[in-house]
């Protein structure tokens, strides 16, 4: 990330039908001198949006994937954090419109500092 900024790289979202749930992913790069803490996310294209994490519990045929909300994610100065399928991601609930390949999805990340970061995610197949 450029010095003094919190950058978002490679933002993308999965295609999804209107009314369905969706997911968005990106990499956060912290070029600031302070730990950046994301405490929330919003999108005008969804009834609600939140940070989530997928976890696999168990092994083999009995393994189950569990998803849980995450209250905050922190990125240390000079570090990065990847939000990706099967891990941390933005969960979009109740999409107000269909997301088709080639569309874009606006997101706003809310930081503990009170600042916000606007992100545009490209809609594409995984």
Task: Walk me through this protein's architecture.
The chain has 126 residues and is mainly beta. 0% of the residues lie in helices and 58% in strands. The chain is built from no helices and ten strands. The chain has strands spanning 6-13, 22-30, 36-42, 46-57, 64-69, 73-75, 80-83, 88-95, 104-111, 116-123. Strands 1, 2, 3, 4, 5, 6, 7, 8, 9 and 10 form a ten-stranded mixed sheet that branches. The protein is globular.
Major sheet attributes: 10 strands, mixed
Helix fraction by DSSP (H/I, runs of at least 4): under 10%
Low-confidence stretches: none
Please state the overall shape, judged from the principal axes of the Cα atoms.
globular
Content of β-strand: over 45%
Q: Element order, helices and strands?
A: EEEEEEEEEE
Number of helices: 0
Report the radius of gyration as a whole number of Å.
15 Å
Structural class: mainly beta
In angstroms, what separates the terminal alpha carbons?
A: 25 Å
The tally of beta strands, per DSSP, is: 10
* Overall pLDDT score: 93
